[in-house]
Amino acid sequence: MEENKDDNLGKLIKIAIWLLVLGGIIFTLFLLKEKLPMFKTKKVEVINTASNRNDLANRNEDFAKAESLLGEDPSQALESYKKALAQAFSQSDIDSISFRVALATYRSGNVKESVSLFKNLISSSTVSNITKAYSVQFLAQEYFSTNDTNLFNIIFSDDPYKGFFADGNKDNALRKLVEYGKSFQALPILSLRSADYKARDLMNLPPQKQVEKENLISEIKNDITVADIGIEVLRGSPNIDQLPVIYNRKLILSTNLKRAGYILGDPTDAYVKGSDYANLYNDRNTLMFLHFNYAIYLSIENLAQNSDKIVSTLRNIYEEKDRNLKIFQYLKNKASADPKTDEVAGFIVSLVSVDNSFKNFLQTLGWKF
Fold first, then answer.
1. Of 104, 182, 207, 309, which has fewest CB within 10 angstroms of its CB?
2. 3-class DSSP state of 183
3. Are 222 and 42 in contact (CB under 8 A)?
């Protein structure tokens, strides 16, 4: 009996030892995973698409009618969206239609009410994170494409947005707005805007801040990866018409990274792809900004050598017949900017030095040279 007890005790001791060894191996692997790059898994947020608008249009006749009217008659589209909203039952349908109601309200000219509608979506406890992200993205995107001071003041008039502007710095407020949108969902446009702010940080870092530079580059690469994954998701969704804007952001980002001394993306490639998609989806607003931003890139690369390309690129803007496009409002609102403190205004001064026709055109918008 004593021998059996000893044998059992020996077996238990052996099992205990093996459990300790196994536990040590698992703990060691955990530490390696945290410390060594080869064991790390890159965290990339997979971007979900919004409710399929095509499917919604097939199920909701008023929604389909509103979608067809939005481009040419947003006021009539708004009435149809409201009727469609009354028929919606699922939360995803309600979210999608509510977003389009806010969008149609804005395009109908009621800026203040539309901003309030977008903010209601963002603060709602029932609205999906992706709809909240798109709502924040729209608020930011509309200001960036118009430079409208009135719109800025409306956006940042109440909390939490008012707090973003607490230091009185517009650029900081807009950056915080972008990051706020990203906190709901890292959409491609928000991710690329976030990366662009970091690229500007890179430009301002002194050479000795190497660790800080490496950290920023790592964050920028992750933002680009998230955006690229988002692009692939968009290709299979009704939101594919966002591609022109995304490639415009890639053009700006790769330009600013080159200015900071890093090659991540090709401005010319982004310009060509963005222009192709803008023409495909008839997005003339973004097409004009692609021309404008590419001309800026060419001026930064080599103003004198690229003068002919700059003229041919800018000609697309000042020979455009539709003066209701946002680029014209944007340039008009920039007329009062100081080229010494406003970067875009400074670039424009460089552009007019090689394109007199562009200079004459800007003077009709209130620019003084």
1. 207
2. helix
3. yes
Record the tokens describing residue 283, joined without a space: 């997005």
Task: Please report where in the chains the tokens 């238990």 appear, as a residue.
Answer: 12
Q: Which residues contact 227 (CB under 8 A, 6 or more apart)?
A: 188, 189, 191, 192, 195, 246, 249, 250
Spatial contact of 188 and 226, defined as CB atoms under 8 Å apart:
yes
- pLDDT per position as a tens digit, 296-353: 999 999 999 999 999 999 999 999 999 989 999 999 999 999 999 999 999 999 999 9
Which residue's structure tokens are 């990866």?
A: 225
* 153 has pLDDT over 90: yes
Task: Match 């050479």 to its residue by tokens.
Answer: 207
Q: What secondary structure letter does DSSP report for 237?
A: S
Q: What is the pLDDT of residues 212-253, one digit of tens each?
A: 999 999 999 999 999 999 998 888 776 788 899 999 999 999
Token pair belonging to 46: 């997979």
**In the block, which residue shows the tokens 């001026």?**
299
CA angle 207, 213, 218 (to 5 degrees): 160
CA distance 74 to 122: 22
Alpha helix (H) residue ranges in the chain: 2-35, 53-59, 61-69, 74-87, 91-107, 111-123, 129-146, 149-155, 161-164, 170-184, 188-204, 210-234, 243-259, 267-280, 284-302, 307-318, 326-333, 343-352, 356-363
Q: How far is CA 350 from CA 288, 307, 357, 363, in A?
A: 18, 10, 13, 15
Q: Residue 325: left if φ>0, alpha if ψ -120 to 50, beta else—which one?
A: beta
Model confidence pLDDT, tens digit, residues 188-215: 999 999 999 999 999 988 887 888 999 9
Report the C-alpha gap between 358 and 315 in whole angstroms. 7
C-alpha 64/C-alpha 323 separation (Å) is 29
**What's the Cα-to-Cα distance from 319 to each of 251, 281, 316, rounded to whole Å?**
23, 21, 6
